[in-house]
Each structure stands twice: as C-alpha cells, then as structure tokens.
Design a protein that fits this description.
Length: about 100
C-alpha cells in the first residue's frame, strides 16, 4: 500500500518529502506533489519530512481527502518526477509544523 499526498500540499508544494524519497516516487504538478503508488515502497521517509501533514498511508487517508488516492494514481502518470529541493510555493497559509 502506497503513501498518498493530500490537499494540504496544494499551494504549499514544499519538496522535503520528494528529496527524502529513496525510490523517486514523487511527481510534481503546478501547485502540488503526488506519489506514484506503483513506485512507493512505504518507507516512511516522506511522511517524516512533510511539514504540512499532507502525506498519509493509503489506508489512513482522512475521509475528506479519499479522492486524493485516485488523484495520486492518475496524476503520477502525467507529472514529471521530482527528487530534489525546490523553493516552496507557500501561496497560502500552509500551517507548517516543526520538523
């Protein structure tokens, strides 16, 4: 079961998670990231690095963001791979937690 990026990433797109991923499972959209479920190895590295609490194991995605499971699967086939740090968008109040 893969990890899933959810709505809190939109407008923030902080890439610590992508840089931490050992298998290059992250894909970059215009204003958010997704995880390719066919590549994710459930290592927890991204989960620990997400400062906006946007990443969940697939079976623990909150009900309000369940549609993000399908969105990650579909969009990960379209978006380019990202595995490095980039300047975050921070287009909204991202409620960043301490890492």
């Amino acid at each position: 079961m893969a990890y899933v990026v959810t709505e809190p990433c939109v407008g923030c797109k902080i890439t610590y998670c992508a840089a931490a991923c050992p298998v290059e499972a992250f894909r970059e959209g215009k204003d958010y990231l997704v995880i390719d479920p066919d590549i994710c190895i459930n290592c927890n590295d991204c989960l620990r690095e997400c400062p906006v609490n946007a990443i969940f194991p697939e079976d623990e995605v909150p009900v309000m963001w369940k549609d993000w499971i399908v969105l990650n699967a579909k969009e990960s086939k379209k978006f380019p791979m990202i595995n490095d740090l980039k300047k975050p968008l921070l287009d909204k109040d991202c409620n960043i937690k301490e890492l």
